[in-house]
Write a structure and sequence with these properties.
Layout (H helix, E strand, L loop, with lengths): L13 E2 L2 E9 L5 E11 L2 E7 L6 E10 L4 E9 L5 H7 L4 E6 L2 E9 L19 E5 L2 E5 L3 E5 L12 E8 L3 E11 L2 E11 L5 E12 L5 E10 L16 E4 L8 E5 L2 E5 L4 E3 L3 E14 L1 E6 L8 E7 L13 E8 L5 E9 L7 E8 L3 E12 L3 E12 L5 E7 L5 E8 L3 E5 L2 E8 L4 E12 L11
Parallel strand pairs: 1-4, 2-16, 14-24, 17-21, 22-29
Antiparallel strand pairs: 2-3, 3-13, 4-12, 5-13, 6-12, 7-8, 7-11, 8-9, 9-10, 14-15, 15-21, 16-19, 16-20, 18-19, 22-23, 23-26, 24-25, 27-28, 28-33, 29-32, 30-33, 31-32
Length: 467
């Protein structure tokens, strides 16, 4: 015989809903690690314990449950995620008694079949035995072929849940209050870094603010949680989670809290010093970086592999001497500058990967309006084993000030190559990238000319000027 509460629900199981502590660690790939401690009263012997308000995207295979005081052991665990809906409720009520409220009264009976179309659609346009409700009543089999106003159910079947629930069977050595710890991975959680940079009037220094944007779409809310994030790309055997759509946005205070950063394996772990509530379907932003007067270099670069225009890039070193020197998590960097009326204007944005300390950061801001570059092939010679190309790059500077443009060439990666002649000295950055720094006077022009020899590897007929 079932033990029932005053509202008719079953009280033969224990509810672990008093949350004594919760810690959430969020990763870059859509994964969250949740560590909860919940309180429940257990009797001596076998207990059925239900953990409600668990995420709908929980990875059940990652569950770890234990009694903190080792006074109870877990025998079995089940994750009930078959959530109630009108369609599922009707399916579960086949062969059960049900009541339909029609225009001219009610009809009661045992439900034998439901329409192929979902409940909630109108049935007053077409009726058939395959597209109607079928009941067994005292008078016989009835097919309802008229509009339905309401459907009355006697209750909710045991195998349907109103929200995801973790059911655990535990064997307790003693009766009384128990603290149960359970840890699990869940999908629907993610975080990324967003940076806001403001240039000074000379484009030589910038102020930089960093924000952690943490998304919770796991299907539940974590109240007063200790929050940590991991910067780094972890490997998962299972596919990465789809983070989904975010709805509400919370913006934190502008002052950066003293976030603790530490190494964790080959990653970086950031601990937020204050507890916070992660609501379901919410983006939360927390400031973690606030640095001023960072030295930067503005670079004009002409690289046809990426753009037909002259690109404007900002380069700086992530070093302590330059006001930084901390691991910068991957994210989006947005760059601003104030105008003559001291109003902030948006210049552009670029993405960065994880940047260790003491490494350089290069940001592609946009294309230069007043600088034009054109590349022309002047000559070529080709044979079985080699090719020679001669190019010129004309640069026109319509700005008042003198500039320098970095012209980038990407030589053939499957050839041996050599610069035969040039009017500016090149810099070999790698086997597949060389560059020239070309100075251009204000409102002036400049021309770079160079000739490159390519020798095909393993060729039997070498060129006289072979490398």
């Amino acid at each position: 015989m079932q033990n029932l509460n005053s509202d008719g629900t079953d009280n033969s199981y224990r509810i672990a809903e008093v949350q004594n502590d919760v810690e959430v660690t969020v990763y870059n790939d859509g994964t969250g690690l949740v560590k909860e401690i919940r309180e429940t009263n257990l009797s001596s012997g076998i207990n059925d314990v239900k953990f409600v308000d668990v995420p709908s995207l929980m990875d059940v295979t990652s569950l770890r449950i234990k009694d903190i005081d080792n006074k109870a052991v877990v025998l079995e665990q089940n994750y009930d995620y078959d959530l109630i809906s009108s369609e599922k409720l009707l399916e579960k009520y086949i062969d059960k008694n049900i009541t339909f409220v029609l225009e001219n009264g009610t009809i009661k009976g045992k439900l034998l079949s439901i329409p192929h179309t979902s409940y909630g659609q109108q049935y007053n346009s077409y009726y058939s035995a395959q597209n109607s409700f079928m009941l067994r009543t005292e008078e016989g089999i009835v097919i309802i072929n008229e509009p339905i106003k309401d459907i009355i159910f006697a209750g909710i079947p045991e195998n349907l849940a109103t929200k995801p629930t973790l059911s655990v069977s535990m064997d307790s050595k003693s009766a009384g209050k128990h603290n149960i710890e359970f840890d699990y991975l869940t999908g629907g959680m993610n975080w990324n870094a967003n940076y806001v940079c403001v240039l000074n009037s000379e484009d030589k220094k910038m102020d930089m603010n960093g924000w952690m944007t943490i998304s919770n779409n796991a299907g539940t809310t974590y109240k007063n949680a200790k929050l940590k994030v991991v910067a780094g790309d972890i490997h998962r055997v299972t596919p990465k989670y789809d983070v989904g759509v975010n709805y509400n946005v919370f913006t934190g205070k502008s002052a950066a809290p003293q976030i603790k950063e530490e190494g964790l394996f080959e990653y970086h772990l950031y601990t937020i010093p204050i507890r916070t509530t992660l609501k379901n379907n919410q983006d939360k932003q927390i400031s973690f970086l606030d640095n001023n007067a960072i030295n930067i270099n503005k670079i004009f670069e002409y690289d046809l592999q990426y753009s037909t225009n002259v690109m404007v890039k900002m380069k700086f070193k992530n070093s302590e001497s330059n006001g930084l020197g901390i691991p910068l998590p991957k994210g989006t960097v947005r760059i601003y500058k104030v105008d003559s009326e001291n109003k902030l204007q948006f210049l552009g944005e670029d993405g960065i990967q994880h940047i260790p300390k003491d490494e350089y950061v290069s940001l592609y801001v946009g294309d230069a309006f007043d600088i034009v570059a054109e590349k022309t092939e002047n000559d070529r010679k080709e044979d079985k084993c080699y090719s020679e190309f001669e190019y010129k790059v004309d640069i026109r500077n319509h700005k008042k000030e003198d500039i320098s443009v970095s012209v980038v060439e990407h030589p053939c990666s499957y050839c041996n190559w050599k610069v035969l002649k040039e009017n500016f000295k090149h810099n070999k950055e790698s086997t597949s990238k060389i560059s020239w720094e070309v100075p251009v006077k204000g409102n002036g022009n400049a021309t770079l000319t160079y000739r490159v020899l390519y020798l095909f590897k393993n060729c039997k007929y070498p060129h006289p000027k072979s490398i």
